[in-house]
Write a structure and sequence with these properties.
Length: about 550
């Protein structure tokens, strides 16, 4: 038998006790993170910034408010929202003494405050379907692997009755985890299976794909778009198409935007018009995406259904959009007022990526075009299905191409045209032009990705409803001169704008007239501009 000195024995016992305590705490941490959910589980007992469970503990106080989405209902606005305690538990409205109000702010007007009527809505028997669509394009960096890793960690906490599918996309879609039970999806959710970021970002088209995957299943349908860059490759998909399809399916689209490099307004419109919301997270918070998606999934079946009057609040009084601020005040305790806001859309919007990038090149050869065959094939199918559609292919080269830039850019556009013709597109549907090195996306190329984006071919869909034709009437050296020229043309009853281009390694500004539905209209506009002494009348 081993004999220890008294002090040694005490130290030994303390060490064992401390080790056991650490093991117990670790088990509690894992258990509480896994064994929480909207039904059938104990409430969370560890702090959480996101929804993790449902509790009936009336001693808990509101700690956070989330507005998950809105829906117009006549003169009322229905709002889905959740109120959480400091542990991440959802607090049912029937067990709280809450006053819920809303402030609607229209443009420059003072906010209008209204009281809410609410009820706690728990669709316990509903089997939800969630499709997670994650950006894996060149401009997204390595965020997609972090997102998939975070999903793998939280998928076991999703309701077992739900179905989940995960796809990653660039200009094509890869099904990483087929739609199925959360347990099997967690097993298939391997970060190492995510390809290296490559290609263009067709986020609009990928969202439509997510809706198509969800269409075959009943119950609440949710598509979560995780995106870190602008859509630059959806040839013909518009936000109007996405919203219309989502409404047909009674589906909600949420957008998680990583970083601030992408424009928020198209994604905000898609989310708010389908009953979802746009949330912007720092790029370094990609590891939190899983927890955030879990909150959206749990909130699709357990939420407060709040109704506010919208009498007098319309597009005429507020314009295209307004902001709604939901306020929650606990009347039973002196706790701070909790609030969250969301955008309201009053006008249908049809944002389109135009022109869309359909190919990039590492050099001046045709090598690399095969990477874009899926995108070009889809584009060809659409053109062949409607012979009235016309496409303009615009070639570009980077600024380091110092000789024959226009010729090389036109050759690139020709590579794309030749593929489309070989696929079966009629020659009269295709036109080619070159912009040389005058319109780089990145004036200072810092890496290979930016060089690829400068060495590109764009496709502009020429449809009458998009007013596709423009007339370049002048080119000036400064932005101030461009502003003055635009005002002059507007005073002459033309629609005008200016765009920045690069000529001889220096920025210049093109003054352009727009609003021409057809080539004949543009020719008439050019003739009229000549009478107004336009310096040029280049139709594009």
């Amino acid at each position: 038998m081993l004999h220890l000195p008294r002090n040694g024995r005490c130290s030994w016992l303390v060490a064992i006790a401390a080790t056991l305590l650490m093991i117990v705490q670790a088990r509690v941490l894992v258990a509480q993170d896994v064994l929480t959910g909207p039904t059938g589980f104990d409430p969370s007992t560890l702090p959480s910034a996101y929804l993790r469970g449902v509790t009936t503990d009336t001693t808990m106080r509101p700690h956070a408010v989330r507005v998950l989405g809105t829906q117009r209902d006549g003169e009322a606005l229905r709002v889905r929202m959740i109120v959480l305690d400091s542990l991440g538990n959802l607090l049912p409205a029937g067990l709280m003494n809450l006053a819920i109000t809303a402030d609607v702010r229209c443009a420059d007007a003072a906010p209008t405050r209204t009281m809410a009527s609410s009820r706690f809505d728990v669709r316990q028997g509903a089997r939800g379907t969630t499709i997670i669509v994650c950006d894996n394009s060149l401009l997204s960096g390595s965020t997609s692997r972090e997102v998939v890793r975070s999903l793998r960690d939280v998928l076991p906490t999703f309701p077992a009755r739900d179905s989940v599918g995960i796809v990653v996309f660039d200009h094509d879609v890869l099904e990483l985890a087929p739609l199925g039970p959360t347990s099997s999806v967690a097993d298939a959710c391997v970060p190492e299976a995510v390809p290296e970021p490559d290609g263009l970002c067709a986020s609009f088209a990928a969202t439509l794909t997510g809706l198509a995957m969800a269409a075959e299943h009943d119950g609440p349908r949710t598509v979560v778009l995780v995106v870190a860059s602008d859509d630059n490759a959806s040839f013909s998909t518009t936000t109007e198409q996405i919203v219309r399809r989502a409404r047909e399916l009674d589906a909600v689209v949420h957008v998680l935007r990583l970083g601030t490099q992408s424009r928020a307004f198209p994604y905000r419109y898609i989310a708010s018009a389908t009953g979802g919301r746009l949330t912007t997270l720092p790029v370094e918070s990609a590891g939190d995406v899983g927890a955030h998606i879990r909150e959206l999934v749990l909130g699709s079946t357990s939420f407060l259904d709040v109704s506010f009057s919208l009498t007098g609040i319309t597009s005429e009084t507020c314009g295209a959009s307004a902001w709604l601020m939901c306020n929650v005040e606990d009347l039973a305790a002196a706790t701070p007022l909790r609030s969250d806001s969301i955008s309201l859309q009053f006008v249908e919007q049809a944002y389109r990526t135009s022109p869309a990038i359909v190919a990039t090149f590492a050099d001046t050869t045709e090598v690399g075009l095969q990477n874009f065959y899926p995108l070009l094939a889809s584009m060809a199918e659409e053109l062949m299905s409607d012979s009235t559609l016309r496409v303009e292919l615009i070639g570009h080269v980077s600024d380091d191409v110092t000789s024959n830039a226009d010729v090389r850019a036109r050759e690139r556009a020709g590579y794309v045209r030749d593929f489309l013709k070989a696929y079966g597109v009629r020659n009269e549907q295709l036109s080619v032009r070159s912009d040389g090195s005058r319109r780089p996306l990145y004036y200072f190329q810092l890496d290979g990705t930016q060089r690829l984006m400068n060495n590109r071919v764009e496709a502009r869909l020429l449809t009458p409803d998009a007013f596709p034709y423009t007339i370049t009437v002048d080119q000036v050296e400064t932005e101030a001169m461009a502003y003055d020229e635009v005002r002059r043309w507007e005073q002459r009853n033309f629609k005008a704008y200016f765009e920045l281009v690069v000529a001889n390694h220096a920025p210049v500004y093109r003054v352009k007239l727009w609003g021409y539905r057809t080539l004949d209209e543009a020719r008439k506009g050019a003739a009229s501009a000549k009478k107004q002494k336009a310096k040029s009348t280049i139709i594009e």
